[in-house]
Amino acid sequence: MMFFSYFKLGPRDGVMLISVFIMLALTLIFKWSVWEFLFSIVATIIAFLAGRMKPDTKNVLAFLKK
After folding, report:
1. Spatial distance between the Cα atoms of 59 and 50, rounded to a whole number of angstroms
2. How far, in Å, CA of 54 to CA of 15, rounded?
3. 3-state DSSP call for residue 32?
4. Which residues cross the membrane (predicted)?
5. What pTM was estimated for this model as a whole?
6. CA 7, CA 28: separation in Å to the nearest integer?
7. Do residues 24 and 40 lie in contact, with contact meaning Cβ atoms separated by under 8 Å?
């Protein structure tokens, strides 16, 4: 039985959530400032969004195959 099944979270979202918790722990252990925590969260979100982007299927070196 799944609670909150309307969230539709996948394994990639779980990995991102775990990374946010790790950064929160690092913030508390090493006494990072709020700015360092926010910058690390933004960098993680940008990295995950960039990982979801599909590559362009255009073949740049197609002229070499002729």
Report:
1. 20
2. 19
3. coil
4. 20-49
5. 0.58
6. 28
7. no
